[in-house]
Amino acid sequence: MIKKEEVQFINREKSWLSFNERVLQEATDKRTPLIERLRFLGIFSSNRDEFFRVRVATVRRMTELGKKTREQLYDSPEELIDQISEITLKQGRMFDSAYIAILKELNEYNIHIPNESQLDDTQRKIALSYFKETIRPNLVPIMLTNRLNPELTDKASYLAVKLYNQGKLDDIKYALIEIPSQNISRFYILPESEGHKYIMILDDIIRLGLSQIFRIFDYDTIESYAFKLTRDAELDIDDDLDESLMEKLEKSINKRKSGKPVRFVYDKTMPSDLLDFLVDRLNLKNQQNLIPSGRYNNQKDLINFPNVGSKTLVYKRQNPNRHRDLHNQRSLLEVILKKDVLLHYPYQAFSHTIDILREAAIDPAVSSISINLYRIANNSKIINALINASKNGKDVTVIVELRARFDEEYNIECSRRLQENGVKVISGVEGLKVHAKLVLITRKVGAKKVYIAHIGTGNFHEGNARIYTDHSLWTADTRITTEVSRLFEFFNHNYKPGIYRELIVSPFNTRRRIAELIDTEIKNAKDGKPAYMVIKLNNLVDEELVRKLYKASQAGVKIQMLIRGICSLVAGIPGLSENIEIRSVLDRYLEHSRVMIFANGGNERIFIGSADWMGRNLDLRIEVITPIYDNEIKKNIRKIINIQLNDNTKARIIDAELKNEYWTNNGPQVQSQVAIYAHYKRHIKE
Question: Residue 114 contacts by C-beta under 8 Å, 6 or more apart in sequence?
Fold first, then answer.
């Protein structure tokens, strides 16, 4: 048993790796459909790439800062890098084992993934024809010399090629080929034969065609080995006052493409001479950067693995439910003027939000629309609705956060498109990322001007709304809309921060208000009143709030937490956190909504919003959390949270050992995401 003095905080990097291990668990869970298990391997791989680009790169930079960083990391940076290496190598072995097991199970369904040496004559002919007609025109082989340092793309995977004659090792040439997976699908479906289905990986078709690529050389042996380079993704934005933020970002994005290498993943069968040559050419001096792997890299492409078999191999299609208050209504704005509406994606349709904006774009009574955009879908219907509103004479203001990591280029492109169509674009706030999810629609009702506002937990992104669970509150309640209006005034005039009594707004009052809510529970517990909290977040890292939760637990406040990702708090320590339990639900959809429930002496208070409990969300971003006033919505949120708290199928226990054990009880089987979808399906019929 852990003693109070032994551990109080879990390092965020190790906690994040533990979260990604839960993703990996889904790839090994026989209850998950087989093709979906393969796709979870892709999600795991994509997550791991970003972890190295962002978090490992940050820790590496910390090694240059000395002792001060130990307090932030709860380890020295050097020790942490060693621990990360150990964990990622272990997880790499788990990944390989899961991949091999899934391939064996696919074979049982007569689905095969042959490499270039496992084709029959007919398949070989078809694959070579595809190589010649489709793949070859997209390849740019580069011959490597001692004088050439190749410029490698961070997100790409490569084949390192060795050309030589058997018995004549004094004449060797090296080359590299970028696998063109951004232009061509990573997976090629060969014709079915006698009920057996075949899928080739793009890398292997290129291997099949190597002799055609290098036929001008007189070598009898051509070998190829996969590798991938991951770079530091931190943007270096200078302080040149003569340049706009957009111009600075464009420069920084270009610099990111040549950032410091933080990981070199290579086929472990690569011969030492080729590996040494690449390490020298790429200036990979730090051996911790070198990670041996398997035959394929960029396994994130498994997310798009095709299903050529039975429908049982993938999740059963779930169409989003219509919201009963908005379904078949003549005017959605009129509905919201009469009552608050809460949407819950992906169980309910994101198209409702698009329809609200479309209606506002053509409604003669609407004079203006303001919105925050952080991440935006390609070909976004939200953008189209805003442009349509501008063309219809509405005053449209869009706050685009240009610094949304890895979406910077697309956000710049969207900003320009909006501006070209008469939309006023504000590029964030100096010194603060705008992470809030707000809309403000100004509408005339009779002789009076009224506001309709949206506050959500997720981005206005049609794609994410199909796989992320999020809440969107639409309301005309003046207690909320007046303060949302103040925030948009702040975006226009940063010297007017405004006063927020109902909304919890970072960086102005979030830390203080959350602390006050916890203090109320502590006081009520001491006074013998009902005292509990239910907190659902993506990440819990902030040390000050973790200490506050420990204090609440010691006072007798019962705390239940649903934390999807990083969690620095250690539950269950006698005398410190025995009144805290933490679980993480990981299933078909990515849990993303943030919900806070406080007993408040028997009169529950419920909040939703965009902020996690991390220093950046509390102090360095514009975040908005709103109280829920509507009793029907409060009951629905409570029901949904109770379903998740009773999930005994896909919930894992978060503990100090990061074991990710499944939580079980003696009750009936509950798989919360399945139960919540069924709840909303009934809801529309009631």
Answer: 123, 198, 200, 204
Q: What is the pLDDT of residues 481-521, one digit of tens each?
A: 999 999 999 999 987 889 999 999 999 999 999 999 999 99
Clarify whether 683 is annotated catalytic: no
Task: Check 323, 344, 435, 454 and give the catalytic one.
Answer: 435
Cβ–Cβ under 8 Å, residues 262 and 52: yes
Q: Which CATH number fits domain 332-492: 3.30.870.10, 3.40.50.300, 2.60.120.200, 3.50.90.10?
A: 3.30.870.10
Domain 1-108, second-level architecture:
Up-down Bundle (1.20)
Residue ranges covered by each domain of the chain: 1-108, 117-317, 332-492, 504-685
pTM of the entire structure?
Answer: 0.92
224-244: burial string, b at 16+ Cβ within 10 Å, e else: bbbbbbbbbbbbeeeeeeeee
Amino acid of residue 134: T
Q: Which CATH architecture fits 117-317?
A: 2-Layer Sandwich (3.30)
Alpha-carbon torsion, ordered 54, 60, 61, 65, to 10 deg? 140
**Cα separation of 324 and 327, whole Å?**
5
- Per CATH, the architecture of 504-685 is what? 2-Layer Sandwich (3.30)
Nearest residue to 574 (alpha-carbon basis) of 28, 7, 163? 7
Sign of CA dihedral 36, 40, 45, 51: positive
What DSSP string describes 621-663?
Answer: EEEEEEE---HHHHHHHHHHHHHHHT--SSEEE--TT---PBP
pLDDT (average), residues 571-595: 97
- Average the pLDDT over each of 146-160, 230-244, 461-475 and give the range with the smallest value: 230-244
